[in-house]
Structure formats: C-alpha cells, structure tokens
C-alpha cells in the first residue's frame, strides 16, 4: 500500500503504471494525469489476475492538457478505481483515449461527472464497460463541443452503469 502524494502523471510515450496483485494506492487529494500535449499510449492498469487491487485519486484528466495526444487511458479489471473529482476524457483535439472496465472491475465516481470529448475536435474517445461496473456517476456528457465526433460509451456483456445525473449527447 501507498498513501499520500498530490499527483500521478504519466507522460511521454508508452508509459505504464500498474497496481496489481492486491496493491493499493491512495492519492488523497491527488489528480491523475495521463498524457500531456502530444503524449500517447500511456496507460494506468488497476487489477489483473491476482488479488483485487485498489487505486484512488481526485480529478482524472486524459490527456492532462490540451493537445493531440492519443491512446492514453485506464483499464480496470479485478480491481477498484475510486474517483473523487470526475473524469475528463479526450480533451480538445485528443483522440482515441479510453476508459475500460472489465470483469470484476469497479469505477466509483463518488457523485462526480464524466465528460467524454471535453471540448474541441476530440474524435474517437471511448468508454467500454464490459462485465464491469461504473457507479455513483452524477452526469455524463458525450461530445462537449462542436467538432467532437465519433466518441462513445458502450455497456456490454452484463456491464452496468449507474448515473443519477443528466445524460447529454452532443452539447
């Protein structure tokens, strides 16, 4: 287990951060920032085939800042991601960024919002909930500006999404 810290930033290209085999990370007020500018192919993995794992943080931004970075994301399987500040996926012109929740994976949004394609010409960003659960969401926006195209959320194979706020598609 690890507790504390203000931030987890995975930048550059092909960065991987894994919490597996029962590992636990607590970023009490820390933000999770995946990719910056043109950074691509950075991934946070929570869980795996061993004991259930846990990761908590505040605001999650994928990518961290505006830019053209793509294929940055989070995968949760056999673990829990606790988010206390919302998720912004695919900011400005960033494309093909993702959040995937697989079997025995749980993403607890703790009464915060989820925005896919957070402004500008952000294309092809996606959320897949495949046998996993995303819960305590307070509002989902898919396509938050003109030019945000082909962004999606898929709930398949018994996956579950629990949203108590508005669902806005094309804002």
Describe this structure in words.
With 171 residues, the protein is mainly beta. Helices cover 0% and strands 53% of the residues. The chain contains no helices and 18 strands. The protein has strands at residues 2-3, 7-10, 16-19, 24-26, 31-34, 43-47, 53-57, 60-62, 73-77, 79-83, 87-91, 98-101, 105-118, 126-130, 133-142, 152-156, 160-163, 167-169. Strands 1, 2, 4, 5, 7, 8, 10, 11, 13, 15, 17 and 18 form a twelve-stranded parallel beta sheet that branches. A six-stranded parallel beta sheet has the order 3-6-9-12-14-16, with no helix packed on it.
Summary tags:
12-stranded parallel beta sheet, globular, 18 strands, mainly beta, about 170 residues, 6-stranded parallel beta sheet
Helix content percent band: under 10%
In round numbers, the mean pLDDT is 88
Total strand segments: 18
What's the main sheet like? 12 strands, parallel
Number of helices: 0
Question: What is the beta-strand fraction?
Answer: over 45%
Structural class: mainly beta
The SSE order reads EEEEEEEEEEEEEEEEEE
The end-to-end span amounts to 40 Å
Q: Using only CA atoms, what is the Rg? A: 14 Å
- In the predicted model, the low-confidence regions spanning at least 5 consecutive residues are none
Shape: globular
